[in-house]
Design goal:
Helix content is about 0%, strand content about 50%. The chain is an all-beta fold and about 120 residues long. The chain is globular.
C-alpha cells in the first residue's frame, strides 16, 4: 500500500495548484481517501475527504476554493486549489482510511497509510 503525493510548489496569493495522489497496492474507490495539511508548529488538519460512498467534505477554510476529485481509472485523487492564500502554506498529505462509515470525519486520526507529502508555499 503506497500513496505518492505530488504537485506542490511556490505560488503567489490568488494563484492555483493541483495536487495529485497516486495510489498503488489498493483500489482508491474501495474506501475513504483524504487530503490533509500540516503547517510548521501546527497539528495536521483535514482539508478534504471523499468518504466511502462518494460523500465529500471540506474544512471551512477551503470551501469554495478547493475541489477534491478522484479518477478511478488512474487510481488517483486530486486536490484543485484555487485562490490560494498565504495561510494555505503547509505540507500536504494524502491518506486512506480503514473505516467504512458513510459519515466518517475528515480528521487525521481516522486515516493512515500516509504518503510522503508535498510542500505548498503561497507568497503574499
Amino acid at each position: 500500500v503506497q500513496l505518492q503525493a505530488s504537485g506542490g510548489g511556490l505560488v503567489q496569493a490568488g494563484g492555483s495548484l493541483r495536487l495529485s495522489c497516486a495510489a498503488s497496492g489498493f483500489t482508491l474507490d474501495h474506501g475513504a481517501i483524504g487530503w490533509f495539511r500540516q503547517a510548521p508548529g501546527k497539528e495536521r488538519e483535514g482539508v478534504s475527504c471523499i468518504r466511502r460512498g462518494g460523500g465529500i467534505v471540506y474544512t471551512d477554510a477551503v470551501k469554495g476554493r478547493f475541489t477534491i476529485s478522484r479518477d478511478n481509472a488512474k487510481n488517483t485523487v486530486y486536490l484543485q486549489m484555487n485562490n490560494l492564500k498565504p495561510e494555505d502554506t503547509a505540507v500536504y498529505y494524502c491518506a486512506r482510511s480503514p473505516f467504512s462509515s458513510l459519515r466518517l470525519s475528515c480528521i487525521a486520526s481516522n486515516f493512515g497509510s500516509w504518503g510522503q507529502g508535498t510542500l505548498v508555499t503561497v507568497s503574499s
